[in-house]
Amino acid sequence: MKSNVLIVHGGAPTAVINSSLYGAVKEAGKYSDIDKVYAAIGGSKGILDENFLDLKSIDGERLELLLSTPASAIGTSRYELETSDYENMAKIFKRNNIKYVLFNGGNGSMDTCGKIYRVLGNSDINVIGIPKTIDNDISITDHAPGFGSAARYIAETVNEVAQDVKSLPIHVCVIEALGRNAGWITAASALARKKEGDAPHLIYLPERPFDEEDFLEDVKRLYDKLGGVVVVVSEGLKNKDGKPVVEPIFEVGRSVYYGDVSSHLSNLVIKRLGIKARSEKPGICGRASVAFQSRVDRDEAVLAGSTAMKAAYEGNTGVMVGFERVPGEEYQIKTILIPISEVMLHERVMPENFISERGNDVTKEFIDWCRPLIGQDLRDFISFL
């Protein structure tokens, strides 16, 4: 008897989450004993509501649009699941003849994926995780689909802002990047630099305690030298006591709505140094921007989706697809299968060797590691200054 596939998206969308969906659907189409390829509309809540769409019913040309569609085409959620919900899911899978469950998401979603796997026990339903996060904070895997495009977005954005500040060097511009506890996106802004002295001039990550006096000292020194300064900071900056630099506006479980860090720091520059300053906060503009989608990120997202489907079909379960770099001068990765228990809510932050000694920049090691992930080179601009 033929069986069915269920694909679920969890957490915040990215510029390539739909590419993983595409990869999984295309792979599932190779197997004659797979009947329907269901998508849970609206994330985990869609499972409980049995709100399923058979993606095999979608025209092939329309499916191709997944590769260039931002956010999640099938919806997603941060729905808080109870123990009883997982038990209900097991019944729903059996009722709908679902043999393969592919859960695409970040840390929280991999936790959900692992709990589904545990509830299913020794059943014949195979559960596989597909990594997805702009924050790049999933453990074990070298990086996660979604990060490369978010990294490209922040680098391109800072590259453009840098031209503005360079042409009218009268103020300090503080750009706030996404990232609560992990500074990967903030750090990626360093790829905007083409030569020594280019912006961003300062980068502050949540992995290091933030000291306002050191920040002001750094800004003043560079302002006196350059006239215009570009600073990139993480939304999750914390002081030496581990408390957010700006008190969170709202907190619910793992979801934290931070105050405006860039505004706070630009106001600090104005008040303490008497220098013009302004804040910029791209926010979710860079979370799922297809305009700055990394081709490498997109292709690897497709690979993650197809590998997950293939692994499930071959009988693997309770694992997440991951990437491992192949040693050598040319950038290459291979896929690996990681026990889901090793990634459930295990947060991966920037390692010390990627952060400068003073904590206001990144190292060459980080730049060399990150550069291949953004895909095509950043745009070139002309300047006579």
Short description:
The protein is α/β, with parallel strands linked by helices.
Please explain how this structure is put together.
With 385 residues, the protein is of the alpha/beta class. The protein has two domains: 3-134 and 291-342, Rossmann fold (3-Layer(aba) Sandwich), CATH 3.40.50.450; 147-286 and 351-374, 3-Layer(aba) Sandwich (Rossmann fold). Helices cover 34% and strands 18% of the residues. The chain has eleven helices and 13 strands. It has helices at 17-28, 44-48, 60-64, 83-95, 107-120, 147-167, 184-188, 212-226, 261-273, 295-313, 364-370, and strands at residues 3-9, 34-40, 52-54, 98-105, 126-131, 172-177, 202-204, 229-234, 250-252, 255-257, 277-280, 319-325, 333-339. The strands form three sheets. A seven-stranded mixed beta sheet has the order 3-2-1-4-5-12-13, sandwiched between helices. It has a four-stranded parallel beta sheet with strand order 7-8-6-11, with helices on both faces. A two-stranded antiparallel sheet has the order 9-10. Helix 1 links the parallel strand 1 (3-9) and strand 2. Helix 1 (17-28) packs parallel to helix 10, helix 4 (83-95) crosses helix 5 and helix 8 (212-226) packs across helix 9 (261-273). The radius of gyration is 22 Å and the shape is elongated. The protein starts with a strand and ends in a 15-residue tail after the last helix. The model has no long low-confidence stretch (mean pLDDT 96).
